[in-house]
Amino acid sequence: MAAVEDVRNYASVSHMFDGKPKKMFIGGEWVEAASGKTFETSNPANGDLLGHIAEGDLEDINRAVRAARKAFEGEWSKWTPQDRMALLLRAADLIESHFQELLTIDTLEMGAPISRGPFMKQMIVGAIRFYSSQVFNTAGNTRPNSLPGDFRTFTLRAPVGVVGGIIPWNSPILSQWWLIGPVLATGCTLVLKPAEDASLVVLRTAELLEQAGLPKGVLNVVTGFGPTAGQALAEHLDVDRIGFTGSTQTGQGIIRASATNIKRVQVELGGKSPDIIFADADLDKAVPGAAMAVFANSGQVCFAGTRLFVQKSIQEEFLERLQAFTKTLKVGPGIDPSTQLGPLVNRKQLERVTGYFELGTQEGAQLVVGGKRLGGNLADGNFVEPTVFSNVHNDMRIAREEIFGPVISVIGFEDAEEALKLANDTSFGLGGAVWTRDLSTAMTMSEKIKSSTVWVNCYGIIDPSVGFGGYRMSGYGWKGGPDQIEGFLYQKNVTMNLG
User: Annotated catalytic sites, by residue?
Assistant: First the structure.
């Protein structure tokens, strides 16, 4: 298969596609699943088999947690902040030099266009180097004491311990670092369960971290399925913190499972983000910006701006421009450098998205462009057209439910008050955007939109030094930024009697 031949050109990862089942990484060793089971992983662009991967379950999670606990209480606990910083910097250099290999593996397995490489490289390598700077952001402080006697009180901040991580399939090349980075920075250890649709890039990352000098047991990767491996990790009594990114429904289950030992939880869940276009916006920027706020990664982005609110005085012109721009986009295999929209990750997601195409029409929305599965030379893959609906009402299901596909719902509004009311009429609160030349409008809307992140005259810009997270049904806790580091530490108060 040509696409696999592309990655075999990288000698260092030819073993990832050699036909042999891929093992898990537990306690610094590459091991088969305790059950001996494997599962298949396929290329969503054509359905071709990429390989087999070990299918972990409860027994493997137990092994991994034991290894993580042993490492946490052993050699790893003796590493100084400078040691951990040096490890992260070595990791950053290795990821940077091997990035095209990682990107190619990621593209073959989950479909995202390889053309996103320069942006992703800057973001991921920058995030790792940011985390290296956070190794010293673990200090306590002294507290004034008002008690009678000669007492001194100070605080210490210590790593919470063993962290469990469950990451989604839509961008594992990046999302793994929202967990690996803070774990290495704070001195915790990690058991990581990648999505079954996109595990290979995480396994290759583990190989590189091993090469960087990572001690045994600090990172453990258990591949498998959510109801078995994921559930076991969330419920495990010796896991101190869980980080999860995925659907709201699954996140609710993770939160319930984590109650077994009241472990700390950070969840980034679904979204239905508002993207608001005012009449004074620069349409030359707003049209492509709003389109790619949804069509990037074929809409498989949790904070995609799928509810597109357009001021009615410019709605007709905006729709004409949006339709024209959408028709220029190239859909195809992600491995093709000219592709702008790749395939959906699997057949289940394909059926879900095409089902919403039908639902939108049934609900009375007007199909502006797209709305079909693609055939011809793309018939074997999970390809759909980028799609725009207009005349959408905020109570339609296509405007309320997360589709996770390249589908835009255009909703008109009269003024800022109505736009704000419509934008906040949702159970989610992950992202949002405002396009306007009016600074006062931009500030007012940014303050009143109920989401954890608001972009102005741009969309989806996430700097690793600034936390990103959920609000309302989109979750809670931060990924990135100094605030995230706090979640991997616990505070200990010490009072000493010097009298």
Answer: 268
Closest by CA position to 204, among listed 122, 88, 105: 105
Predicted confidence (pLDDT) per residue in 426-463, tens digit: 999 999 999 999 999 999 999 999 999 999 999 999 99
Q: Are 145 and 241 in contact (CB under 8 A)?
A: no
**Is a pLDDT exceeding 60 seen at residue 477?**
yes
The model carries a pTM of: 0.95
User: Contact 166/245 with Cβ under 8 angstroms?
Assistant: yes
C-alpha closest to that of 381 among 441, 435, 334: 334
Structure letter (DSSP) for residue 228: I
Beta bridge pairs of residue 455: 433
For 56, residues 6+ apart whose C-beta sits below 8 A from its C-beta are 24, 33, 34, 64, 193, 222, 223, 224, 228, 229
SS3 call for 354 = helix
Rg (CA), the chain: 24
> What is the Cα–Cα distance from 231 to 17, expressed in whole angstroms?
29
**pLDDT per residue as tens digits for the range 363-417:** 999 999 999 999 999 999 999 999 999 999 999 999 999 999 999 999 999 999 9
For residue 178, what is the enclosing H or E element?
A: helix 177-186
